[in-house]
Structure formats: C-alpha cells, structure tokens
Design brief:
- With 215 residues, the chain is mainly α.
- The protein contains 7 helices and no strands.
- The chain has helices at residues 11-51, 59-86, 94-115, 118-142, 154-176, 183-202, 204-211.
- The radius of gyration is 21 Å and the shape is globular.
- Residues 1-10 have low confidence and may be disordered.
Length: 215
C-alpha cells in the first residue's frame, strides 16, 4: 500500500514564516500591553480625580505620571524595534534588512542626540518605518512581485500591509502625541487602518469574490 506524500515546506521558507509570525505575535502583545496600561491608567486617573483633592496639581499625580512612563517606556522601545524589523522585511533580504534597520536606528539616535529627547528619536524611527510601510502598501496595490508576505493573494497582502501601518500609527500616537491636539484624529486613522487591514486579511476570499462580481 502506497503512502501518501505530504508536501514539505522548504527550510528557508519555514524559517521565514516562523520569523514573520514571531514578530507579528510580539507586536500584537506589545500593543495589547500598552492598551491595557492605557485603560488601567485612565480608570485610575478617573477615580483619583473624584477622590484626591486637586489631583492634577498634587504630588501624587506627578508620581502617577512617572510610574506610567516607567511602565510604558520599555514596551514602546520594544515596539519601535519590532516595527523596525517587521516592516522592511517586506522589501529586503535578511542582510539588507539589517542595513535598512540600522539606518533607521541611526536616524532615531541622531534625532535623539540633536534634540536631547528620546521621545523625538523614537518618533523619527517610527516615522521612518511608516514611510517604508506606505511604500509597501503602494507596491502591494500595484502588484509588485518582489514583496514577501505570509498571506497569499493581493487582497490579503494589502490587508496585512494596512494592518502593519495601523500598528505604526498607534505607536506614533503613544510616543509623540499624548498631549497633542492631533492625538484623537491620528488615533482614529490608526484604528481605521488596523480594523480595515484585519478585515481584508481575514475575509480576503469574500472581498476578492465581491470585487470580481461573485465569480
């Protein structure tokens, strides 16, 4: 009796997919951690406003800000690094990826040194990654064959690219727009990108059929 052969995945392809999946899971975990912290901090601040006299000008508020920043800073830095590795890999090989990521790190460190603000350095780093991701979105829509994705099919790839861009926008909001009037508008842009990208990724088959008239 003949045994059915199961298709084997090339070691390099399997390694790349494992790398992609690990970066995706780590990015989602970090964003989830920041989201949980933001929710918990908002609830605590809401409670403190009603129970602590002159909360916004009290020493307790200053300590609260220090604690929140100390918790968020490692996650934000890790998220910036993960995004810096996750986005250029769509365009570059592993060796070129290291060079591209190194250039973005240098830009971030240079901005930090020039301004004396680590926040500015992280913001510049994330903006660089976002610029690369916008290029990925455009190239994906145009059907460039050189891009590498876990997903198959153009609709799923566009969804993946938009989802990653949404993550970058969220990261930029956390890093640079906490006290800015643009915080909410930019947050909603990131939200729409992330939700829209997720929908295109998970329902790529239905979207493709709808675009092709049900064929």
């Amino acid at each position: 009796m003949e045994e059915l052969e199961t298709p084997r995945v090339a070691p390099r392809t399997a390694s790349r997919r494992g790398w992609d999946f690990a970066l995706l899971v780590l990015a989602v975990a970090l964003l989830g951690g920041l989201g949980i912290q933001s929710l918990a901090g908002t609830l605590y601040s809401w409670w403190a406003t009603r129970t602590v006299e002159s909360w916004a000008t009290s020493p307790a508020f200053a300590f609260y800000i220090q604690v929140m920043n100390a918790i968020a800073a490692p996650m934000v830095i890790a998220l910036a690094i993960v995004m810096g590795l996750c986005i250029p890999k769509r365009l570059f090989s592993r060796g070129a990826l290291a060079a591209a990521s190194g250039i973005m790190v240098l830009f971030g460190l240079g901005s930090w040194a020039a301004t004396g603000s680590p926040t500015t350095g992280l913001a510049v780093y994330l903006l660089g990654a976002a610029g690369v991701q916008v290029s990925v979105v455009v190239m994906t829509i145009a059907g460039a064959s050189s891009l590498r994705f876990l997903a198959e099919g153009r609709v799923a790839k566009v969804g993946s690219a938009l989802l990653h861009l949404g993550f970058l926008v969220f990261g930029y909001v956390v890093v640079a727009l906490q006290k800015d009037a643009w915080m909410l508008p930019v947050f909603w842009v990131g939200f729409v990108l992330a939700i829209g990208g997720s929908a295109l990724t998970f329902y790529a088959g239905g979207v493709t059929r709808a675009l092709s008239g049900g064929r």
